[in-house]
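Q: Predict the assembly, please.
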Amino acid sequence: MQELLQSLAPWLDDNAIFTASTLAQYWDGFVNTVQLVFISLLLGLFLAVPLAIGRASPIRVISRMIWLFTWVFRGTPLLIQLYIAYYGLAFIPGVQGSIVWPLIKDPLYPALLAFTLNTAAYTTEIFYGAIKAMPRGELEAARAYGMSPMLAYRRIILPSALRRALPAYGNEVIFMLHASAIASVVTIADLTGVAYNIYSRYYAPFSAFIFVALCYMVLSFAIQGIFRLLEKRMLAHLKPR
Amino acid sequence: MVIIQRRPGSPGGPFKRETMMKRLLTVSLLGAAIAAGSAQARDYDTVRIGVDIPYVPMEYRTPSGELAGFDIELGNALCEQAELKCNWVEQGWDGIIPGLMSRKFDAIMSSMTINDERRQQVLFSDPYLVPPSAWFAPASTDLAGVDSNDLKDRSIGVQRGTVQDNYVTDEFGDVANIQRYASADDVAVDMETGRLDIAFLDYPTGQAALLEGGEYKTLGEMMTEPKEYFGDGFGMAFRQRDEALAEKFNEALATLKSNGTYDEIHDKYFNEDGTNAPQPDQE
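A: Predicted assembly structure:
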């Protein structure tokens, strides 16, 4: 990336705002945003699958507790969750100097925590909806074959439900990308944070923010493309013939 | 001026009303003409200066009720130099630019920081005082100083988009970890959590946010140089069209700076490092 920017430098000479150095900042912001969103989505996804199964569980206590978790995280703004994770955790008595302090001290981990739990809550509800919408016949067929509930989940319910949840999950991924724009309030230099720095440095709101909007659009299109491919492959059996 | 009096009992018919309208029209046209005339710049011999009191040590009242402060003394000296008669008009901060626009006074000299948003509305003089920026660290800090060796791999807190942010980014962006916050209060909170090793703020802000409790101290020297970073300071504000008046004050300021009067007043209110000097006549 550095070499690419260096080779671009001569063409950028006349430009006050988009110099090699600001483009390098945008690139760092791009990397930070992608990293933050990708890791929290991945962790959120791994959390959401067992949580969705628990949410659909016939045992009421488990189902209710998971419902409470999703209700709290879907019922409050992500920004507030981020503030609590970043500023709130740091003021728990005894946390400073403890073994988790290096993690809380770095703004990345509190942000990852808030983002992960938030996306896990939404994804849990998406998957739970898909599990609940399983065609009854498929479940009965599984039972008729003598499958244990575990086996039925593994072979029938999860593969079918996760596929059908794919379009809704694709939306959640894009929402998460856009929601990550608040990361700069806890000093993470993500795309939006970098755009804000450059805006306040050069007093050029249009250039700084339109460029960053384009960056987000490119990312959104890429995500959409990936999900379209996935849907084509995994939902092929549901397409009209 | 004819005063139209409607006699009691007489109906105010359409004719009467018409003359009334004509007169009203004439009067309003006249008013517009006066307003248009006054929209041009004029020569001032008396200048009314708006000031928000108190803001120690820039402007305040002594126990005996007299105006005092750096702005007041410098303003009076500037007026004397420019051979203008000056009156001070008290005005709350929120209404100080509207007060200038609505001609309650002709200039503002009230520790107003020159910035681009205000430049859209008012005309600024040259800066007459640049408040220093300062480094703030916990009282127990292990930092020895504030050069790039000391700050290597340390976390520096700044307020996003301020002159301090620009300076730190350019000077220490490669060696230190710069954390940018929306407000000085956020910086103060993260100083308390221990996420930040040091903060770089303008001195009055940092003094208010961090120095009161005694848990923090300033480190290194107060900074007002280099000018390319810290150039925008406090300026007098005028209406956009009063360029001649602003020019008079700029010339007077240049004269006072060269003949030593400015330094004399400055040293009365500020220590050499830019901190506030104790005032004997202040409560």
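The interface with chain A takes residues 116, 160-161, 165-166, 169, 179-182, 189-190, 193-195 of chain B (CB under 8 Å). Confidence is low (pLDDT under 50) at residues 1-16 of chain B.
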